[in-house]
Amino acid sequence: MIEKRGSSCCAPARDDSLKLPKPQHKADSNTIAPLSEADDIVSIPAARAFVGTDKPVLTVDGEAPLRRQAVKAFRMDVTTVTNARFARFVEATGYITEAEHLGDSFVFAHQLPDDAPPTRGVVETPWWRVIEGAYWREPIGPDSSYLPDHPVVHITWSDARAFAKWAGGRLPTEAEWEHAARGGQGDVRFPWGDDEPDDTANFPCNIWQGRFPQQNLAADGYAATAPAKSFAPNGYGLYNMVGNVWEWTAQPFRVRSLKKTTQAAHAHKGAYKLTKGGSFLCHASYCYRYRIAARNGSAPDSSTTHQGFRLVYPA
Fold it and tell me: Between vectors from CA 96 to CA 95 and to CA 102, what angle results, nearest 5°?
């Protein structure tokens, strides 16, 4: 096993000694890529949006308090960016992701085939394995293949921003993301309301069922990612705002607290970026972060099989 600095249950960080080359692509920076379908984007109205919660679960993450923030009208991708859409970007620009530059990425251990060769793990979170050759096109490693309608993964924050520039959009702020995720319902816990998902009967999103990380019952139909357009959309027509894959936002991860324990927990996260929504690896017993107000910080060069993104655009 190896330890990589800033290891996390959600998204391990790479070692600080690794220096990534600046990602490059050859398309004209002024080129804006057209969407394939007119209904790929929906309009989100302006509002004094709810952000955070007065009923925090993971107080160390800075979930509280509930507050109101003015948000201008914007448009948002109906789904996270899919493999098919990212492939069009790569074809048009020749873009090379950071995982490709480094030659490896993080894969959840249970996604590997039974006959996989020995792999290196992450201390404290051994379910994350360092797989040489894993990247968005071969997400489980060499000779694996992606599903076109599933979220693109193994995408770092810089990769997401490069795609956004090409697509004429940007990553959302936390307030925009939460406002969109609530779907016009006000102060709710989930995009569908307040009903809790469970392991036996209520499956409104793609999260873990069973005992993490030993047993995934996949009762919701998916042991890993689900199609980007799956499960019921929220009130604004957005799919999988929680569960499935973590979504990068535009802003740094900040927790304002005077508590020494909280400061110590985040002392190494000065450069981390805020991610929202949780993923297929979340469960209430371990990582209860598929709530709208939940927050997570990820190293900007982190790339895993459960990190993706969606964009927002001017109204």
Answer: 165
Average confidence (pLDDT) over 213-238: 97
- For residue 65, give the amino acid letter: P
Q: What is the DSSP letter of 89?
A: H
**Per-residue pLDDT tens digits for 211-223:** 999 999 999 999 9
Cβ contact 283:48 at 8 Å: no
88 three-class SS: helix
What is residue 185's three-state secondary structure? coil
Please give the pLDDT value at position 14.
77
Cβ atoms of residues 202 and 219 within 8 Å: no
Please give the distance of CA 110 from its chain centroid, rounded to a whole number.
Answer: 19
SS3 of 248-265: the string is EEEEECCCCCCCHHHHHH
Chain position carrying tokens 């925009």: 176
Report how far apart the first and last C-alpha atoms of the chain are (Å, whole number): 48
State how far the Cα of 280 lies from the Cα of 77, in Å rounded to an integer.
20
Please report the domains of the chain, with CATH numbers, ordered by start residue.
Answer: 42-94+151-314 (3.90.1580.10)
In order of 24, 82, 98, 234, the CA distances from 28 in angstroms are 11, 22, 20, 36
Residue 76, H or E segment:
strand 74-77
At residue 308, the 3 state secondary structure works out as: strand
Which pLDDT belongs to residue 18?
45
pLDDT in tens, 64-76: 999 999 999 999 9
Length of the chain: 315
Class of residue 25 by CB neighbours under 10 A (exposed 0-12, middle 13-18, buried 19+): middle
3-class SS of residue 245: coil
Q: State the pLDDT at residue 304.
A: 98
pTM recorded for the entire structure: 0.92
In the chain, the amino acid numbered 84 is A
